[in-house]
């Protein structure tokens, strides 16, 4: 029996526990989308960590749960839209439908206990750092009862994402329309478009999926384009012999299930194909020039070499300046007899339709606004950190300016997933989300074991990262002459969307956190108090004391 250790009373220098003993810590996570599921899975490996997820929707899935418009699907191969640790051999299509994606992530959430940690229909509406208590105080609204309450946690992980705040476009007279008005991000599943005259405003990802889906059944479709977009073939399309509609046979799925080595090789090949596109984002690269040539040729062919449509719809700006969107059947649908392509700007919406600046009135029964989300990265609610700094106000006034996509100055014990300058269009996204979660967990572990009240990234490190990022971006297509949400809807603003590098570059940068870029505030006056009673975990728990020999 081990003798009682000599430390009998704690002081402000000596702690009565062993070195690196993790103290209990509580974490609040906003969002039960893909990032929230990743956090719940990975947090299982941390001792003495409890966490609560708040989700405004009624189930797991995030943006994919909310997106139910006609034709919604993943525009990257489904096998690279899964976690590195959770491949899905049972995808039925190369490019999975939105419903299949939601079902997959909900099953993962059941398998890994996400539901037990999540309160659905609960929305965080305010977050404030209490410096005296060293806690985040979060006001949470119960969307079913209308009542609110305050929760508290040492750490706040914001996994709300960027594609979650849809808004009607700012068009004069939109409320005057007497027909049916619907947004792709808030779809009415009871809506029947058969035989209707339909206007689709927008030419982004959702429009590109909606148009070819509804075109065969509507009487007339007017497609409004404010500006052209690069419409490419499917990403990693050589894995899809039949294009977007390519399915996996039962035999193929059985082999994925029964031959894990084959399945792993297949997944890695798709990941390679997705990430190999990155050189085309260098503005003056051979890959960029070749990409422009190839996509231009493809678009001309798919538009039937119609000179008017080609002039209207093929961009003059660099490939990738705005998100390149795969569009199986989209350009072909625009050439159909029941489709009108309108590139004149919208002047206003009337009771019966849409009038353009040249005076033309398009009378329609239904207006679909496929205009996306508010993508400024500005939080939807106040997040008030040290010194009363409100991140919502700061980013609204000065633009989103984070540190390596994962945190921001003056925000103690605060971590982000898919924050500003995440690799959203650089290649395969899901591994990057996993690495962002790993980054947060590394700091949670540090806070637990080193007697820390809080950690906060320095202003200097954040400024120098953004200085480097802005200089690097000058050589990338994302700073080209186009309006883009990558630049918060501007032509020449700073790039706040993609990461300044490849996905593999991002994974390397975040692999080992730069702890030196942070300031630390301790619970005691001596930073080494956590050294404790002079013992290691193995000694305190009676474990073998020579296990370090390999």
TrEMBL record:
<dbReference type="InterPro" id="IPR036188">
    <property type="entry name" value="FAD/NAD-bd_sf"/>
</dbReference>
<dbReference type="Pfam" id="PF13450">
    <property type="entry name" value="NAD_binding_8"/>
</dbReference>
<comment type="similarity">
    <text>Belongs to the FAD-binding monooxygenase family.</text>
</comment>
<protein>
    <submittedName>
        <fullName>Uncharacterized protein</fullName>
    </submittedName>
</protein>
<dbReference type="InterPro" id="IPR051209">
    <property type="entry name" value="FAD-bind_Monooxygenase_sf"/>
</dbReference>
């Amino acid at each position: 029996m081990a003798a009682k250790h000599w430390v009998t009373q704690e002081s402000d220098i000596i702690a009565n526990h062993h070195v690196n003993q993790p103290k209990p810590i509580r974490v609040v996570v906003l969002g039960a989308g893909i990032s929230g599921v990743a956090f719940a899975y990975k947090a299982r490996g941390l001792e003495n960590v409890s966490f609560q997820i708040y989700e405004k929707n009624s189930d797991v899935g995030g943006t994919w749960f909310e997106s139910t418009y006609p034709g919604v699907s993943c525009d990257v191969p489904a096998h690279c839209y899964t976690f590195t640790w959770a491949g899905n051999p049972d995808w039925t299509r190369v490019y999975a439908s939105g419903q299949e994606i939601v079902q997959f992530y909900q099953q993962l959430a059941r398998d890994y206990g996400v539901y037990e940690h999540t309160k659905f229909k609960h929305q965080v509406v305010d977050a404030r750092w209490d410096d005296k208590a060293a806690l985040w105080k979060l006001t949470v609204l119960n969307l079913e009862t209308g009542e609110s309450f305050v929760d508290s946690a040492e750490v706040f992980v914001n996994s709300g994402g960027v594609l979650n705040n849809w808004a009607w476009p700012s068009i004069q007279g939109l409320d005057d329309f007497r027909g049916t008005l619907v947004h792709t991000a808030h779809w009415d599943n009871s809506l029947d478009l058969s035989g209707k005259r339909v206007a689709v405003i927008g030419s982004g990802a959702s429009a590109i999926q909606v148009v070819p889906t509804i075109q065969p059944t509507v009487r007339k479709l007017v497609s409004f384009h404010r500006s052209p977009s690069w419409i490419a073939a499917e990403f990693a399309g050589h894995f899809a012999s039949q294009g977007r509609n390519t399915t996996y046979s039962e035999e193929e799925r059985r082999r994925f299930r029964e031959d894990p080595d084959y399945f792993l090789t297949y997944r890695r090949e798709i990941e390679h194909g997705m990430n190999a596109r990155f050189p085309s984002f260098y503005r003056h690269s051979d890959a960029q020039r070749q990409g422009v040539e190839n996509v231009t040729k493809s678009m001309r062919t798919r538009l039937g070499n119609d000179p008017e449509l080609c002039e209207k719809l093929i961009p003059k700006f660099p490939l990738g300046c705005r998100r390149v969107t795969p569009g199986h059947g989209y350009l072909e649908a625009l050439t159909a007899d029941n489709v009108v392509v309108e590139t004149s700007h919208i002047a206003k919406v009337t009771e019966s339709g849409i009038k353009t600046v040249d005076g033309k009135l398009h009378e329609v029964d239904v207006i679909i606004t496929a205009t996306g989300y508010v993508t400024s990265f500005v939080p939807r609610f106040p997040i008030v950190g040290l010194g009363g700094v409100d991140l919502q106000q700061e980013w609204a006034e000065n633009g989103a300016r984070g540190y390596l996509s994962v945190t921001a100055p003056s925000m103690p014990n605060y971590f982000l997933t898919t924050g500003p300058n995440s690799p959203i269009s650089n290649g395969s996204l899901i591994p990057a989300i996993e690495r962002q979660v790993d980054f947060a967990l590394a700091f949670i572990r540090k806070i637990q074991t080193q007697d820390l009240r809080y950690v906060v990234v320095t202003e200097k490190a954040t400024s120098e990262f953004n200085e480097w990022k802005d200089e690097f971006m000058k050589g990338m297509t994302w700073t080209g002459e186009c309006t883009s949400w990558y630049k918060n809807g501007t032509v020449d603003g700073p790039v706040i969307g993609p990461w300044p590098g490849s996905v593999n570059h991002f994974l390397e940068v975040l692999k080992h956190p730069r702890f030196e870029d942070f300031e630390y505030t301790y619970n005691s006056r001596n930073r080494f108090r956590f050294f404790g009673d002079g013992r290691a975990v193995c000694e305190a728990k009676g474990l073998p004391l020579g296990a370090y020999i390999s």
